[in-house]
Write a structure and sequence with these properties.
The protein is of the alpha+beta class. The chain has one domain: Glutaredoxin, CATH 3.40.30. The chain is built from five helices and nine strands, in the order βββααβαβαββββα. The strands form two sheets. The chain has a seven-stranded mixed beta sheet. The chain has a two-stranded antiparallel ribbon with strand order 6-7.
């Protein structure tokens, strides 16, 4: 698993911005610190609450100089709908190929539902050098991150 102090795994994936663009991590390091908030699935209760909470606190993250991105294995089309429904003003990375969740080692399965390799709920803060300065990963998809702790980590990155 990616840990604090590691170099963040590089990736390129579709970005849901209201349109669909390409997101390459190395091209966004100038926006650092980057808050990469992985979530299991769009349109689910806890994920909707988590992304809405990041939206509600987006001003605080921006004041800290941080850029917030949500990441899930949903298609970019679904993520654009999710973004619109929640009125999110930050962009969402689509890892439909499941390469990013594998690179960050944050995959999980919902065996009883037959759903495999979705993102664990996890947050990584990446500084301008591409170094991970904060890591939080939950094995319980019902647990949300400590938003104050994430903000503090982003403020200090």
């Amino acid at each position: 698993m990616v840990s604090t102090g590691d170099t963040a795994p590089a990736f390129t994936a579709p970005l849901a911005t209201g349109d669909i663009e390409e997101f390459a991590l190395e091209d966004h390091l100038d926006e650092a610190p980057l808050v990469l908030a992985f979530f299991p699935g769009a349109f689910t209760g806890v994920c909707s609450h988590e992304m809405s909470t990041f939206q509600d606190r987006l001003g605080e993250f921006q004041e800290a100089g941080a850029s917030v991105y949500g990441l899930s294995v949903d298609s970019p089309f679904a993520l654009n709908e999710f973004r619109d429904k929640l009125d999110l003003r930050f962009d969402l990375v689509s890892d439909a190929d499941k390469e990013v969740v594998e690179a960050y080692d944050v995959t999980m399965d919902f065996e009883a539902l037959g759903v495999h390799d979705v993102a664990k709920r996890a947050v990584f803060v990446v500084d301008g050098d591409g170094t991970v300065t904060y890591t939080w990963v939950s094995d319980d998809p019902g647990v949300e991150p400590d938003y104050d702790e994430v903000l503090e980590a982003a403020s200090g990155a």
